[in-house]
Here is the input.
Amino acid sequence: MPSAGVANLRRDNAGLVARAVFDEPGVSRSDLVEVTGLSAGAVTKIVSHLLSQGVVREGAPTTSSVGGRPRVPLRPSDEPYRVIGIHIGLRWLVGALADLGGTIVHEETVAHGSTKPGPVLDGVAALLDRLERVAGRRHVVAAGLSTAGWVDSRRQVVVANPDIGWVDVDLRPLLAQRRYATHVDSTVRALASAESRFGTSRGVDDSVQVFVGNFVGSAASHRGVIQRGSHQAAGLVDHLPVGAPGPVRCRCGRSDCFGVLATDLAVAEQARRDGLIGESGQIEDLLELWRSGDRGADRLLRRRAVQVGRAVGLLANLYDPDTVVVSGHVAQEQHLIDLHKGAAERLERADIVSRLVHLTALGEHALTRAPAAVALAAFYQDPLGALGALGSA
Ligand SMILES: [Zn+2]
Here is the structure.
């Protein structure tokens, strides 16, 4: 038996190599020597172990035009492990299974009966059970949960989500029963985490993620680390003034706040008032109308994009990032010009707006890829430890 110190060092080095493969799928063993600073012998040994454990897999060897030894690309394994990502939204839960490379392989949506914490958390427990069943013989190695508002990821507590009336909702009792590690974060921080791995802010040091859904949120990353603040409350942007006062009064008393003017709820409400969609119509109905070429729908969505742009401009002044990534339904290629317009109205350096403000590249599964990315980031801190814990559970 190796001593505990040596065993820990081996685990740390295995984590280093596995993370490098996750960060740069397709790397070869010689790339890994360069990236990790480990010896060629150590890398060979660790890669063999990670292959035997099913954490990484080999692709087809390639030879360069100048000849030499074939290069064997290494990628995160698509079998036999899964991570779970669950997004707790205003109207529904969305849950998914992803492989170790972050590709979503299964996704399902469950509508809430009520937004009260009890029924929603029962729904999350049932969804976790079902996703574990869908995973079948594949082992779930970690799960990530995300929801909007002020979320304390250390304590796994939703401190406040005023829009649905959640205060100090503790997720630990629900999650503690699982045999794999669980992680909780706010929707927008989870999106920022996924975006920096798979999306627009990949390789960017300083970025700001802005999410506009039924709620709004932001997450600033400095040197690749998401800033959480002293009380895990950094990035709450509900009360940024973004336009002329609207019909809904914010809980702060004003009517020009980002959180009441520019959300999916607000724009759907306006569309109902304007008679564009039916009385029970939602954002999806408005988007469908817009895709069919409706001018009224386009006008509404463009106005919203300008409002979101103003929030983006204010945030860019605060953080001076390399990139601002906008996600949610507002992130439409056709409305990027309106986002830029709104941002330029507020930016001190309006000339850089088109270099600065970009749309998400996370695609249709963004809301589940995000919490899955949180789970994966934690898994890759100590993959062999996570698998060992699973075996001894
Ligand atoms: Zn307000």
